[in-house]
Amino acid sequence: MIKSVKIMKSTLLYVLKLLWNSSKLSFCGLFFANIFAGILLSAEMIFWKNIINAVQAAFETGSLKIALYWLVAYMFLEIFRNVMEEMCQYYKIVLSSSTNKYITKLILEKTKNISMEKYDNADIHNKLKKANEESTGRSMNLLYSTGLFIKGLSVAVSTAFILVNFNVSIMIICLVINIPILFIGMKIASRQYEIYNKRFENIRFMDYTKTLLTKHENIKEVKVYGVTEYFMSFLDTSYKTYIDEDKAIRKRFSVQKIGASFVESIIIYMMKAFICMIVIINKMTIGDLTLYIGAIDNFRNAVSNILYVITSIFEDGLYVNNFFELINMQTEDTDKSTVKFNSCFQTIRFENVWFHYPNSEGFILENLNIEIERGKTYAIVGLNGSGKTTILKLILRLYVPQKGNIYIDDHNINDIEINDYYKYVAAVFQDFIKYPLTIKHNIGLGNISNLENETDILQAAKKSGILPYIKTLPDGLDTKLQKEWTGSTEMSLGQWQKLAISRAFFKDAPIMILDEPTASLDPMAEREISGNIKALMKDKTCLLIAHRFSTVRLADKIYVLKLGTIVESGTHNELVNIQGEYFKLFHIQAEGYLET
Ligand SMILES: Nc1ncnc2c1ncn2[C@@H]1O[C@H](COP(=O)(O)OP(=O)(O)OP(=O)(O)O)[C@@H](O)[C@H]1O
């Protein structure tokens, strides 16, 4: 219990700070509007008592003047309270949007510093999804609950004064009878949170399958293989298990809650009967009776609201903690390197590099020695899974080798300021991003500082060979892509790949990393790019992975990778002459073309 209170306290403080930072004005507005609304509610009760008493007095005096004064005052009070309630709603909505914006920014800022290694782990994906899903809603719940708490507290305190004036023990009883319900509520919340965590990854998987089955680019395969039924039966089974589990838990807690509420109602009605008795014995007014009975109801409601709010705060706190866990997560991978990248570097060297993926056993790269000279083009060839892309990931310092070192001139790559290094690198990955944006911005994102420079964008499009196609489109560079979005068109995979290549050209970086950049291109386009590769890569250091030897042969040096080790290196002619591994692969491909 003490631990729970401590967690609640620290979470609430975190949330209040978060909300305060999201929008100070809305936070204050909501806070004060809630307090006023609460106080006005209690004031209305006192005014109402005076109206009743004034009406009763009018039986004797024959004048309703005082009652009318009170009625007018009551009317203004109610109008003022409605204004306050409306202000609560207004500030709540503004604060909700501001919090959403602030939280999104915090999460995205955090994701920038999460390493590839962490992204290889399901845990970070669970954390991100929990933070994304729960943070805004739960923070707003917490805010709403805090608002209710403040309002409940102001109603409770003001009605408590009225009750204490009548009989202090009634006030204490009203307070105490709610405690069992509080405990049951907290138990339910803890149990639900336990279940939420237990189910989370499977629920994430269920959500993922739903997206998978409805994603535009997947529809073809989903239809042809008819996989919807398969996933539907998996979803059915999961939902059924969860519904049964929820029913059982709910039943147990509902019985406990009904029992506690039953006892509470009996006590409350006994107290009301007691008040009636006292009013009769002491010959008090009907206004007094209404005031005290109303005070019991309002006090009881306020206390049960407060306790309900405490349970909600406890529950939301548990969930929102996932967000704080993510935000406070140690990102030891945050770059602490201070050496600036030398754009006039001469070599990049792998010295006895051994690497295996974190959480995987068995080295993917073994004792690798590679030298990349400035201004030259290098190709890496090898069978699927031999480790080619892994080499590129190490050059990009997305991972760090377990043994050996990678140097850029005399500096270990780990000492180089990573974001400075990335300014000088452009890359086309196998699984490049297809942005749901215009063609212009799909290319322009290669160099955000130059995003609107259409002349350079068209130049980059020309180099990749996509320009003639762009010219056929009515909206040209402004054509929106990805059919899932209104007013968009779709492109072929090869055209998308050309866009990804244009993006890399647009960056115009001295280091080019190309992982199968021509895999989806037609022979004409491939020949055009491959044929021009020397010209396109002029003055650039280029590292290229390709399975097509027509592209590979143009490299200044080719490394042949087999089971994580470099087994041959040299120019195309040199490697063909030694008739080794490269020669074998080259001939298998050439035979395929020449067979007929
Ligand atoms: N993130 C990862 N975690 C664990 N293992 C991985 C990861 N990425 C790749 N691997 C494994 O590392 C090995 C090398 O993969 P890599 O992508 O470097 O091969 P490749 O030579 O580029 O293959 P391909 O020609 O098919 O693109 C493979 O066996 C693969 O299963």
Automatic annotation (TrEMBL):
Subcellular locations according to the entry: Cell membrane
Major location category of this protein: membrane
InterPro entries associated with the record: AAA+_ATPase, ABC1_TM_dom, ABC1_TM_sf, ABC_transporter-like_ATP-bd, ABC_transporter-like_CS, P-loop_NTPase, Type_1_exporter
Transmembrane segments: 27-48, 54-77, 142-164, 170-189, 258-281
GO cellular component: plasma membrane
Mode of membrane association: Multi-pass membrane protein
Family annotation (Pfam families): ABC_tran
Species per Swiss-Prot/TrEMBL record: Lacrimispora algidixylanolytica
Signal peptide annotation: none
GO MF term set: ABC-type oligopeptide transporter activity; ATP binding; ATP hydrolysis activity
Domain ABC transmembrane type-1: 29-315
Full protein name: ABC transporter ATP-binding protein
Keywords, sorted A to Z: ATP-binding, Membrane, Nucleotide-binding, Transmembrane, Transmembrane helix
Domain ABC transporter: 348-588
